[in-house]
Write a structure and sequence with these properties.
Number of strands: 10
Strand content: 15-25%
Distance between the termini: 64 Å
Helix content: 40-55%
Structural class: alpha+beta
Strand order of the largest sheet: 6-5-4-9-8-7-10
Shape: elongated
Order of helices and strands: HHHHHEHHEHEHEEEEEEHEHHH
Length: 369
Amino acid sequence: MFVEIELAIETKNFDQAKILIEKIPPQEEKHLWQNYYYGLIAEENNNIIEAEEKYRQVLKDSIFPNPNIIKRIREGLGRIQNIKNLQKAQEKQSLQQQKADIFNKLKDHHNQDELAVLILKPVSVDDKNNLAKNFAEILELDIYTAKLQIPTRHWRLLKTGKWQELQSYYLMFERFSIPSFCYPIQAINTIQVYQVNYLESFNDKISVICENKAQQVINFTVDINEVSSQVEAMLPIFEMSLHTDTKGKLVRKKTTLDYINFYDLHIKNQNLIIRFNDNRYQFEQGNKNFLEAKTSREKWLSLTKFIQNNLSNITLYSDYTPFAESVVQFPKMLKQIDAKVQLFRKEETLWDEAFQLYSGVVFLGVDGN
């Protein structure tokens, strides 16, 4: 009977083979042989997943292994592994070719050599597990490392480098639905920033007294419909203070003294950010109808609440701090950013540049390039 079954499978007469498989006598270890032959049929039909499942079920059920069956199972699993290795090699070659094609298409782009950033957007835990394989193959990482790199809560700066290389990664990620964005630093540096002194009016139009790049005081008015996005953040103020270490010695240590609140409104069609901060805002000037509070903190909260109520349909981004905590680990890149943050600092820090990067990529667009 076994010879007849194998002949039917060899000649692709699978219906006949299945009829014969069901007639295997119980004393012939029926269940083991059935799974083996059904696995062999699946293998002949190029359904290697089902074939492997059947073969491994035989190994699992073989309490007293039959050398004849086990030999065949090992051979079948060996063939399947060869197929997998071939498929993996072909997929890797295809992926490398795609990366090379994209890279070459970008080689004549005007900003191919500019410093850029590649930032990952967070995904759900389930999506992270599903995306990890392609992510690992694109970056040539192992799965474990890939999963550590993919964020689930906040943006993560993945790489800095030449725009051509990072943009090719971005386009590969896009093909496999891995959310990210990539921008050159120069695009962020060219965004104008007006520092707001105080708000005059805020209705259909926003009117502010502010300072431009040359620190000239100007009256700027913009239609409220021109606001494309808004960003809220707290920038730390550091100081060096003396502390006692475990050996009783005095050591200087950088500590956070305070936080300064910032609020950016993006006017994308004018390549402009109008920037509020509670350290410079002149609460005694301009429109004070909404400022019923007494303390500076309360006045700032009243101001931002007033703005948000009038821009409730505009996306507010306020996830700066966790982003900055990771970004400050890239000092060479951050030092290329013009922060445009008017703060007096006793101690040097890159948190201002990190804020400009955060607000800048929001400005340029976080939904693609």
